[in-house]
Amino acid sequence: MLCVLTISTVNVNGMRAAAKKGFVEWLAASEADVIACQEVRAEAGQLPEEVVAPPGWHARHAASSVKGRNGVSVYSRVEPVQVRTGFGEPEFEESGRYLEVHLPGLIVASVYLPSGDAGTPRQEEKERFMAAFLPYLVELRAKAGAAGSEVVVMGDWNIAHREIDLKNWKSNQKNSGFLPEERAWLSRVYDEAGYVDVQRKLAPEGPGPYTWWSYRGKAFDNDAGWRIDLQVATPGLAERAVSARVERAASYAERWSDHAPLTVTYRS
């Protein structure tokens, strides 16, 4: 039986800033059993105690070797039995983009894919990450299955899979995050590696619900967003999902990140 029921993921867009604007209060009020964070951007020593070691949580953090960049975390109510940083690809081992926490019956990973920029070295970095990450996902699912565990890889995947996953899809067809090759790669995660987009399984029609809105213009007010924060799970866990919600702030002023938490509840 799984030891968790409710799981959240959120890109905090800089934990030090988010902690001052409402993340600490959100964490304290959360009923989640596991929370994954991305784009923490700070080392543990730079963060307040209520973020590094909040009461009632076992916190694990993976910082980037480049100061002020990336960084992922996992908070769990149950103490992990194993923790892994990186997925075996030397270029990304200390990049603060992948953290894996093993709990009884469940492996939880926090992932932050590179954002990319079409036609630039940043996009080439994203492509290298994707090329290395897919075979690892295949391997992870196989090992977990052999051990009788489920897997959820959640975080900011920085790819909108289908037209219903972003508001202005027509104008973004040549932009990173909605490139044909990126979307095809995400299809391979589902079709070849055998994972399930949990939120889309529960709400197959769309549009959205979106999880990221640019700070520019009136994207948030107009709900001109992207659905790029995902919980991607093995089929056994995905079948247990009963609800998914985006915890969208009530107003622009109440946002503590340009992303919103995605929270999924699974039956035991």
From TrEMBL:
The record marks N158 as: Transition state stabilizer. InterPro entries: AP_endonuc_1 (IPR004808), Endo/exonu/phosph_ase_sf (IPR036691), Endo/exonuclease/phosphatase (IPR005135), ExoIII-like (IPR037493). GO terms for molecular function: double-stranded DNA 3'-5' DNA exonuclease activity; metal ion binding. Its EC number is 3.1.11.2. Gene3D superfamilies: Endonuclease/exonuclease/phosphatase (3.60.10.10). The keyword Hydrolase applies. Residues 9-259 form the Endonuclease/exonuclease/phosphatase domain. This is Exodeoxyribonuclease III. It comes from Amycolatopsis alkalitolerans. The gene is xth.
